[in-house]
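Hey, quick one: can you model this chain's 3D structure?
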Amino acid sequence: MIRGRVHKFGDDVDTDAIIPGPYLRTTDPYELARYCMYGIDKEFSKKVKEGDVIVAGENFGCGSSREQAVIAIKYCGIKAVIAKSFARIFYRNAINIGLFPIIANTDELEDNDIVEIDLDNEEIKILNKNKTIKCKTPKGIEKEILKAEGLINYLKKSKNKIK
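Sure thing. Here's the predicted structure for all 163 residues.
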């Protein structure tokens, strides 16, 4: 279960808007997080509280394949991104880094809504509106990687099981 406040964006949010190129000079995930969504909202990282979610329209994470976009979002405190659709490479990077990509019709969701995402039942409850919408969550190996909080952790746990 993921519960947090909504930060809503539109369609075609590209990786350069998520973490602009000039801020890619570090590998420190917390430094990257300071500039999360900087190409759209320079104050975004100051507004986020641990557990919040990003909501967007179509094609979230388009553009380059930079993993730093997902890292910036995750280390900013965001637990999930809910979008109508994702760029394929962003979706895969999100799984690998341990950020939940959730597919849903986001028309009902607005800035500052409080949502509770039930990953098992594939529902998003909009608590302040007493509404529920259906969603699609990762399944199979993708779900296992997310439960482990990313691919590296998943591989470490899998290696321990093999011994």
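One thing worth noting: DSSP finds seven helices and seven strands in the chain.
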